[in-house]
């Protein structure tokens, strides 16, 4: 998939505790022209979203050390400067209850692992494309 024309200006935050998956996500998104910041736990993700760093998209795992991805999502939706931030939940927890809870908290998309890199990039492009 070709990167968006303005992808280089798009900053993504990836919160994933598994080093291999974090590396795959960073490589995939970086190769597509996104600027990626990756963190390994929920506490780091919270610190990042509370900051003024300009994120265009957040990709969250549900199971993270420190606090869960759902806790991070809950906080994101309370922060005035992040309320409209698109969020993709990318998790191995594919139960209906997890999906329902993620959407109830304001997730824009829910994907399960293992994931299709092509589908993830399409979802990311769709969420950050100018409307």
Strand-helix topology:
Layout (H helix, E strand, L loop, with lengths): L10 E5 L3 H13 L3 E5 L2 H9 L6 E4 L8 H8 L10 E5 L4 H9 L4 E4 L4 H12 L3
Parallel strand pairs: 1-2, 1-3, 3-4, 4-5
Helix pairs in contact: 2-3
Walkthrough of the structure:
- The chain is of the alpha/beta class.
- It has one domain (about 5-130): 3-Layer(aba) Sandwich (Rossmann fold), CATH 3.40.50.
- It has 5 helices and 5 strands; from the N terminus they run βαβαβαβαβα.
- A 5-stranded parallel sheet has the order 2-1-3-4-5, sandwiched between helices.
- The longest helix has 13 residues, at about 20-30.
- The radius of gyration is 13 Å and the shape is globular.
- Residues about 1-5 have low confidence and may be disordered.
In short:
39% of the residues lie in helices and 18% in strands. It is built from five helices and five strands, in the order E-H-E-H-E-H-E-H-E-H.
Salient structural properties:
alpha/beta, disordered N terminus, globular
Provide the CATH top-level class: Alpha Beta
Give the low-pLDDT segments.
1-6
Which oligomerization state do the chains in this entry correspond to?
single chain
| CATH-assigned fold name | Rossmann fold
The domain count comes to: 1
Assigned CATH superfamily:
Response regulator
Task: Give the terminus-to-terminus CA distance.
Answer: 19 Å
What is the number of E strands?
A: 5
The major β-sheet equals: 5 strands, parallel
> Widest sheet: strand order?
2-1-3-4-5
Question: Residue-averaged pLDDT, rounded?
Answer: 92
Structural class: alpha/beta
Q: How much is the radius of gyration in Å?
A: 13 Å
Question: Approximately how much helix is present in the residues?
Answer: 25-40%
CATH architectural type: 3-Layer(aba) Sandwich
């Amino acid at each position: 998939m070709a990167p968006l024309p303005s992808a280089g200006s798009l900053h993504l935050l990836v919160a994933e505790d598994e080093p291999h998956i974090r590396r795959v996500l960073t490589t995939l998104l970086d190769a597509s022209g996104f600027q990626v910041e990756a963190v390994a736990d929920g506490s780091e993700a919270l610190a990042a979203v509370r900051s003024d760093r300009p994120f265009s998209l957040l990709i969250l795992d549900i199971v993270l050390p420190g606090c869960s991805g759902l806790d991070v999502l809950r906080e994101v939706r309370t922060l005035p400067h992040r309320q409209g931030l698109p969020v993709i939940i990318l998790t191995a927890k594919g139960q209906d209850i997890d999906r329902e809870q993620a959407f109830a908290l304001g997730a824009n998309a829910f994907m399960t692992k293992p994931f299709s890199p092509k589908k993830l990039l399409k979802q990311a492009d769709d969420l950050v494309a100018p409307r």
